[in-house]
Structures are given as structure tokens and as C-alpha cells.
Amino acid sequence: GENVEQHPSTLSVQEGDSAVIKCTYSDSASNYFPWYKQELGKRPQLIIDIRSNVGEKKDQRIAVTLNKTAKHFSLHITETQPEDSAVYFCAASIGGATNKLIFGTGTLLAVQP
Amino acid sequence: SQTIHQWPATLVQPVGSPLSLECTVEGTSNPNLYWYRQAAGRGLQLLFYSVGIGQISSEVPQNLSASRPQDRQFILSSKKLLLSDSGFYLCAWTPPGTGRGYEQYFGPGTRLTVT
Fold it and tell me: Which of B104, B106, B111, B113 to mutate to test the interface with A (most CBs of A within 10 A)?
């Protein structure tokens, strides 16, 4: 079945450093790739997304890149701050008219002050 | 603007008791609606989704059921809870239309503890 793999499962960086989280997907029909940030005890929040017709999208300190050939997409956070500490989930749309997403297993990002 | 509500926010129930969680969306019509469960420290498991009133698709066989009695109301139920039903239950919605059909927005969640 469809699958999204996410790495690493945990990531610790120093404040000001960059963080990169990588995902791979299996469904070649996937065309929408969102990233969610979930703080402890809170709901996941959509922070950035990319569609298959572009290779890169940037919003201030966060960016997402997509390589459809390799079925890889990545989240890049620059100049990390303690408030970036959270669990980050990637997801990929499942092909067809169901509008479903399949989620990665999450990355716990800890930004050390 | 659109908002999504879930209640209750927290719930402690004994094994074998029934369950009813409610989700409502305001400010939109004909959304797709989803129920997810998140076990402690784990990822998001899709339980049910609905593309319209009375239309429910189940993703995982279990002792839970879902219903959509109104366009913007989604209910998750169980007749008899199991210990393994404990978790954080999240409702999500997507805007109608082909342009934004995949963007999912989550409600605040219900934290269920089965004792």
C-alpha cells in the first residue's frame, strides 16, 4: 500500500543552526505534500505545502523542496529558534478523488538555546 | 473565516462504556471530514473520512464507527470502549473544490483515556 517514510525520528540542533527533515513517498500519483508542526498537547498546524508542479517553495525561514523523480521531499528550517521545537509531520496525497493524506511518522525537533 | 470545534476536550471513560465525540465545522459548506487517532508519542492514523452527508469510509477495522448526520457535523462513536482506544482524537476538514481539496485543517482534539 501507500507509504511515507520520514527521517530522522529525532533531531537536536543548536539555536541558529539549520534543520532538515526528509520524507519519501511511494504513490507516484501523489501531487500534494504538506508539512505540519505539532507542539506538545496541541493540534497539528499546517506550516507549508508544495504541489507537484513546483520544485521548491519558501516562506521566511522555512522551505520545502520536492524531487518527483526520486519521490523525495524535504523541510528546511534556517536560523532555528527555541520556539521551533516541536514534532514535524510530512504527508503526501493519495492518488484519486478521496483527498486523503498519508502521514509520515514524525520528527521530534529540539532546538537547544 | 472557517473554524472547527471538537468536544469534549478531555474524557476519561471505563472499559466497556460507550463513546460519542463530536466535530463541527463553521464557515464552509460541503467539506470533506476526517477522524484521526494519535496514540501517545505516535503518528496520525486515519480512522474514517466522509465526502458528504451519510457517506462514511472506514480505513481501519475496529470497534469504532462514524456518522455524518449534517453537512458540517461528524461524530465518532463506540458501543464498548477498549483500553487500546485511548489516544488523542483529531477531526480535520478540507475545503470543497478542486483547488484546495487536499489542505487539511485540524480541530483542537479530544484526549480520551480509557481506564
Answer: B104
- Residue pair A102/A89 in contact (Cβ under 8 Å)? The answer is no
Digit-coded pLDDT (tens) for B40-86: 878 899 999 998 999 999 888 678 999 999 999 999 999 999 999 99
Determine whether B81 is exposed, middle or buried from the number of CB atoms within 10 Å of its CB (0-12, 13-18, 19+): buried
Helices and strands in chain A, H and E counts: 0, 11
* Interacting residues of A93 by C-beta distance below 8 A, sequence separation 6+: A30, A31, A32, A33, A99, A100, A101, B102
CA distance A105 to B67: 27
| pLDDT level of residue A40 (50, 70, 90 thresholds) | very high
Tell me if B89 sits within 8 A of B21, measured CB to CB. yes
Quick check: A7 contacting B, CB < 8 Å? no
How far, in whole angstroms, is CA A25 from its chain's centroid? 12
The per-residue b/e assignment along A8-26, b for 16 or more CB within 10 angstroms, e otherwise, is: eeebebeeeeebbbbbbbe
At B68, the amino acid letter reads R
Q: How many residues does chain A have?
A: 113
What number is the average pLDDT over the span B20-48? Answer: 92
Which residues have a Cβ under 8 Å from the Cβ of A48 and sit 6 or more positions away?
A34, A35, A57, A59, A62, A63, A64, A75
